[in-house]
Amino acid sequence: MKLTVWTYEGPPHVGAMRVATGMSGLHLVLHAPQGDTYADLLFTMIERRNHRPPVSYTTFQARDLGADTASLFRTSARDAYDRFQPQALLVAASCTAELIQDDPGGLAETMGLPVPVVALDLPSYQRKENFGCDEAFLQLARALAKPVERTARVSCNILGPTALGFRHRDDVAEITALLEEMGIDVNVTAPMGSTPADLARLGAAHFNVLLYPETAESAARWLEREFRQPWTKTIPIGARATRAFIDEVRTLSGSRAPVDDSRLRQPWWAASVDSTYLTGKRVFVFGDGTHAMAAAKVARDEMGFEVCGLGCYNREMARPLRALAREFGLEALITDDYLEVESAIAALQPELILGTQMERHIGKRLGIPCAVISAPVHVQDFPARHSPQMGFEGANVLFDTWVHPLVMGLEEHLLTMFRDDFEFHDAAGPSHHGGHAPKPIAPATAPLSPAASFLPEVAPTTVAQGTAPAQAAEAAVAPPALSPDSILWHPDAERELKKIPFFVRGKARRNTEKFAAERGLTAIALETLYDAKAHYAR
Amino acid sequence: MTATTCRDAPVLKERGQREVFCGLTGIIWLHRKIQDAFFLVVGSRTCAHLLQSAAGVMIFAEPRFATAILEEKDLAGMADAHAELDREVARLLARRPDIRMLFLVGSCPSEVIKLDLHRAAERLSGVHGPNVRVLNYSGSGIETTFTQGEDACLAAMVPVLPRTEAAQFLLVGALPDVVEDQALDLLAQIGVGPVRVLPARRGADLPAVGPGTKFALAQPFLGDTHAALVGRGAEPIAAPFPFGAEGTTLWLKAVAAAFGIGADVVDRVTAAPRARAEAAIARVSETLRGKSVFFLPDSQLELPLARFLTRECGMQAVEIGTPHLHAQIMGPELDLIAAGPTISEGQDVDKQLDRVRAARPDLTVCGLGLANPLEAEGLTTKWAIELVFTPVHFYEQASDLAGLFARPLRRQALLAPHRRAAE
């Protein structure tokens, strides 16, 4: 058993639903109890889809268990076929149905339905949502793709987009336009946007563009074996990666068509002097492996940030992510326990988090700005406007969305110079973000207290008695120890620390305590603070 | 009278695909209501994913619930599930010394593998009591639908309530604190007392129950709790539910009568809030009057709400679907609803949606999975879950309740002309 509050990934059958919901002409019959229908709202509410997911749930109840859940499955499959007339039927079991072992695949096979039936084996107690996507798409491709002639003109398939994917809609539009500019036809985009009939002609493409390894790498590998279609290894997130992707596509396709990059503004935006203040900002990166690795490279090479932490929640990507982390001089954080991620962030005190909606919550708790780079995401991460992560426009979007949560350069200086202005002080938050009324400046604290106890705005999770009882009572588990309890702050050092703006205060506190601990000091005086500042100056 | 109401109307019973939450969903409000309780679901990743998805947005603060996710080794018998559970509970309680009541909540997988959580709760009560009381109930989707989770939770508390012979009134059902305070104030003014509440805001502060206890449900979905309280000797008070001015007045009068207090006292005490509620409902109802409404089954609030909308807001009910129809508890409601609408119990969602499309009601009350698809078909909808998450009981909330139904219609009227122009 594993204790969990929030999860990064849903169960594998939700992955199968993402594949089915992205497609048309396909119907999924899921052997599942009534409660599993909650998953429909992920698509209709979070992604605002205007159709129900093409999923029938068998809705077995406790009283059916001793009797005949198998015939319930057969009835559901028959009704689903009669009502929806799909080109192909996908059948699977959710976690509970897996336990009753009805074998939906075997049952459906004997029904003599006049369309292909694709059975999925989804081990709910071992694997998760991304596996469900990858496996569902692989099995569909295996069952449906037929040997066909290559297209006369050079063409490719775009593999990986699914329903509920982070910016998949916009990435596909961006990359499709880029390929078109290079004179390459898109044969099939799948799973999202395809039908079972489209999957039958996957083999007509000359090569595959794999946008999301999490959801389609197994299919790409199978297509390579079956139809000798090579596939792109570069994920075009960021200006550099987009150029590398173009080079890779040229190699695979022989295309020599020039690509107009005049709409790529991100490199100039990063180079302009207004962005100087971004230099060396410490960034913590966490997400699915693909997006986390891409974001880390963009953060370092295109934004001039310092990546101080890097990790992913999907163990399938552990190996390449660990290798990249080593290259960055970091130890990778591979975990799906968001409390571990929170501990790592609290200990590192980055100035910016690039993460998922979980890290957005963590950032809110810890008072650290956060931009979202990866699933899982929420309704606000499905914008009405075109907002890709990939291609040239994607690079522009990354610049804007990563810089937006930060306090801007000149404002940073002004906050440092005039920190006690009653209207213009750091607790009011960045001035370009609405909705913050200036909060009163925190009252002075008791002398010689543990450091963690007087910075509730930076460390709201502290367990120190009497400091933030509401938040402490909310914590399901003890928050990470933010500082060694043995180190005490003298009142003058504590006052000085408070003069440091909130967006660097956590880092200053962490550095000072580390500096003190390394020297065996048990108390931090004003001098210690400035010694540490000088020590860490860069 | 029965000929003109729904009391003896035939019920369309359906069996097929349902589009409803399971009982685990009740944890979303119960863990805020009972402030020293923790809800530990013993289930799968699906259960954890449901809880974070059903909440709409993840609650920012650490919630007082979690899921102990069963893993392969728990199922294969490689690990003793009870030993694993004991370990996780010990860790949890060590981190949360403020917890006084722990609910082990069964799920579909834990029920199917027959993990005996009752035995586990008794064992863990022995280990962690008397400081922490450990109870269990099932919120599984193979046994409970949505609000039945609260019923199962409250019913699990009834056997451990202390016994009392004393005369008292017990208000049953989790209400938002502001609503509960209003109810207690009204009851005090009427002269009903002493009054206790189940669930209490602190789990450690359990009400007593016994033969001198009379109780009324504030929520219509508490059938098992009702039966359990009767089993403890308490006497139920039958009444319509306190939705709308009429429902609130009838509920208060039934409670008052059970305590020998005349209707005239209730009329005097409630005159001002009743008049205020009626005036406010009349204003909001301008949008609702003459419009048709179709309820898909969701929370078991459907019948009382349909009664309120038809009798106080001038709407016409086409079909009133409920996941489960408890004839005894719903009797007073059925007596008030004029004959006409189809009353349906259970669900076969595709067939029911065919009926929705045929009827083209002005407003369809449905779950989150169906709302946007129906809107895209040009049908105006009201998400049912908001009816459970919003203060809607008693006089002061009556017009807010009407407003929840009026808002989608007002919005549709505001946007529809422009949408047509834009498309």
How would you sum up this structure, described in words?
The complex is a heterodimer of chains A (538) and B (423). Chain A starts with a strand and ends with a helix. Chain A is globular. Chain A has helices spanning 12-22, 39-46, 62-65, 69-84, 95-100, 104-109, 129-144, 168-181, 196-200, 213-227, 239-253, 266-271, 289-301, 318-327, 338-348, 357-366, 391-403, 409-417, 469-474, 491-499, 502-518, 526-536, and strands at 2-4, 26-31, 55-57, 88-93, 117-119, 155-159, 185-190, 207-210, 282-287, 306-312, 333-334, 352-355, 370-372, 488-489, 523-524. Chain A is 43% helix and 12% strand. The longest helix of chain A has 17 residues, at 502-518. Chain B folds into 3 domains: 2-17 and 280-422, Nitrogenase molybdenum iron protein domain (Rossmann fold, 3-Layer(aba) Sandwich); 23-144, Rossmann fold; 168-274, Rossmann fold (3-Layer(aba) Sandwich), CATH 3.40.50. Chain B contains 17 helices and 14 strands. Chains A and B meet through β1, α2, α4, α5 and α16 of A and α2, β3, α3, α4 and α5 of B.
Quick structural gist:
The complex is a heterodimer of chains A (538) and B (423). Chain A has 538 residues and is α/β, with parallel strands linked by helices.
Key traits:
heterodimer, A: 538 residues, alpha/beta, Rossmann fold, 4 domains, 5-stranded parallel beta sheet, 4-stranded parallel beta sheet, 15 strands, B: 423 residues, 3 domains, globular
Structural class of chain B: alpha/beta
Largest sheet of chain A: 5 strands, parallel
State the major sheet of chain B.
6 strands, parallel
Rg of chain A, alpha carbons: 26 Å
Query: Which class best fits the helix and strand makeup of chain A?
Result: alpha/beta
What average pLDDT do the residues of chain A reach? Answer: 87
Number of domains as seen in the coordinates of chain A: 4
- What spatial order of strands do you see in the largest sheet of chain B? 1-12-11-10-13-14
Overall geometry of chain A comes to globular
> How would you write the strand order of the largest sheet of chain A?
11-10-9-12-13
Average of the residue pLDDT scores of chain B: 93
Kindly state the number of beta strands of chain A.
15
Q: Look up the CATH topology of the largest domain in chain B.
A: Rossmann fold
CATH class category of the largest domain in chain A: Alpha Beta
